[in-house]
Design brief:
By secondary structure, the chain is of the alpha/beta class. It has helices at 18-29, 32-37, 40-54, 66-83, 113-118, 139-150, 165-169, 190-209, 226-240, 245-255, 258-266; strands at residues 60-64, 89-93, 128-133, 154-159, 172-175.
Length: 269
C-alpha cells in the first residue's frame, strides 16, 4: 500500500477535543522537515542540473494535479515579483487554470494531457520538467515525465511514495517519506507541506545560483507595493551607507531596482 494511503496513527478523530486535534496535527507536521532533509542530495542534483540548463536558455516547468498542481503554480508565480524574472518557472495543473480554484474531476487520469499541456511552450532539451504527485502515480504527471525524458529534457519528481511510476519515469526522484496523514489519505496535509518545502528549496536555490540574490537580499525584486518599496529603500541604505531614507527611496524609484540603484550610487552616477 502507498504510504500516503496508509491508515492514520490516530483514530477516533471525531471524538477528540479541539486541543487534541491541533496537537495531533502539529505532532505529525514536525515529521515533515526531517523527511525533507533526507531528500537534499536529490534536490541538489536537480538544482545543479537546472542551473546548467538555464545557462542554455532553459526553463523550469512544474506540473501536477489537484493540490500538487496548485503548489507548483504558487511557487512559480512568486518568482517574478521576488526575483524580477519572468517566464523562467512555469506552473501547469491538470484541468487548466480553472482547476486552480475548482477540482476538475478525472483531469489527472489522462496519460497524454500533461505532455499536451506543455506543447504551447515548445519545450526543448534545455528545459526541465518537475512533476509533483504525492501518490507518485498520477497519469497526468507520469505520462508527461516519460515524454519529457524521451525528448531530452531534465526530469524530476516531488513525491511521497518510493518505487512508484513517477520515480521510475523521472531522472531525479525526490521522495519525502512523511508517513500516513493525520486524516487518512488527506495528502494536502503533510505531503502537501513537504512538496511546498521542496519547491521552495528548488526555486530559491536556483535563483541564488543564477545571481538574483546579493548577500542575503533579493536585489531584483519588483516594486509592486509600498511594503516592497520600503524594503528596497532599506536595502539601498544598508548597501550604500546612505542614512537619508528619502534619498535612498528616490534612488530606488529612479532606477526601479535595488541592484541598479546600489550599483549606480557606488559608481558615483
Amino acid at each position: 500500500m502507498r504510504t500516503t494511503e496508509q491508515s492514520s496513527h490516530y483514530d477516533h478523530l471525531d471524538t477528540m477535543s479541539t486541543r487534541e486535534i491541533l496537537e495531533g496535527i502539529n505532532a505529525e507536521d514536525r515529521l515533515v522537515p526531517v523527511a525533507v532533509a533526507q531528500v537534499i542530495p536529490a534536490i541538489e542534483k536537480l538544482v545543479d542540473g537546472i542551473v546548467e540548463r538555464v545557462s542554455r536558455g532553459g526553463r523550469i516547468f512544474y506540473l501536477g494535479a489537484g493540490t500538487s498542481g496548485r503548489l507548483g503554480i504558487v511557487d512559480a508565480s512568486e518568482i517574478p515579483p521576488t526575483y524580477g524574472v519572468k517566464d523562467l518557472f512555469i506552473g501547469l495543473i491538470a484541468g487548466g487554470d480553472s482547476a486552480i480554484r475548482t477540482a476538475v474531476e478525472g483531469a489527472e487520469d489522462d496519460w497524454e494531457q500533461g505532455w499536451l499541456d506543455l506543447q504551447p511552450y515548445h519545450p526543448c532539451e534545455a528545459d526541465t520538467l518537475v512533476g509533483i504527485t504525492a501518490s507518485g502515480g498520477a497519469p497526468y504527471v507520469v505520462g508527461a515525465l516519460r515524454k519529457a525524458r524521451e525528448a531530452g529534457m531534465l526530469t524530476g519528481v516531488v513525491t511521497n511514495n518510493a518505487q512508484s511510476l513517477s520515480t521510475e519515469a523521472a531522472q531525479v526522484p525526490m521522495v519525502a517519506t512523511v508517513g500516513p496523514e493525520f486524516v487518512t489519505g488527506s495528502t494536502r496535509m503533510k505531503s502537501g507541506t513537504s512538496a511546498k518545502l521542496i519547491l521552495n528549496m528548488i526555486s530559491t536555490s536556483v535563483m541564488i545560483r543564477l545571481g538574483h540574490v546579493r548577500g542575503n537580499k533579493m536585489v531584483d525584486m519588483q516594486l509592486t507595493n509600498q511594503k516592497l518599496v520600503d524594503r528596497g529603500t532599506r536595502m539601498i541604505m544598508e548597501g550604500t551607507g546612505i542614512t537619508d531614507y528619502e534619498k535612498a527611496r528616490g534612488l530606488l524609484l529612479r532606477y526601479g531596482q535595488v541592484r541598479l540603484a546600489v550599483d549606480a550610487f557606488l559608481k558615483g552616477e
